[in-house]
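Allow me, if you will, to draw on your knowledge of protein folds for a short while. I have a record of one protein: its chain in single-letter code and its fold written as discrete structure tokens. Kindly check, if you would, that the fold set down in the tokens agrees with what the sequence suggests. Thank you for your consideration; the sequence and its tokens are set out here:
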Amino acid sequence: MIKKWHFYSTLLLIIAFLSSGFKPFNLDSNPWFLTDGTDESDYLFPSQKQEDYAKLNIPFTGNFFIGYKEAIAFKESQGKYRKINSLGYLGKYQFGPETLRTIGVYNTTSFLRNPDLQEKAFLALLAKNKWLLRKEIEKYEGVVINGIHITESGILAAAHLGGVRSVKRYFRSNGERYFRDAYGTSIISYMKAFGGYDTSFIEPDSNANVDDI
């Protein structure tokens, strides 16, 4: 009887010892891994709301609009809202003062200090340029010119760099005449680099204004 009790006691001890080796990790000791829902922390991204990204200064990839605007911003200013370049272009998307006036922005000092206004300005300019270039978009989207597959987002990016007239001139010359800015960047490079993004939700608007965004 004693031997049987000793046998079972030993067996239980062995089972308990082996079981302890497979004890799950204490997740409470790893707060970086999981949250218990009581610390009021939220995951904000990814988000379908553009305004959720207004204060981020990193480039995004992918073909979504958020990737488009952040990629342009990174190219223009490395995403810095208060950037002023040597030619006087302003903000995250490097607007010229004259361009800003066409979409209802007259105080450049306030503009530099207002990230939300800069985001609205980018949307307003896209809407205005989409209206002004609506015929070119309809005619040339999907066409290949000089090895570049023309897309709506590429056309709008080129207009952001060089203006609407330079884009119209490019198409009229079948790609032979194209604009370069003071730093040597061409509208062709923008048309290629920022092509294929989804800008379909931007409504063409000849009177686009930041107050309406």
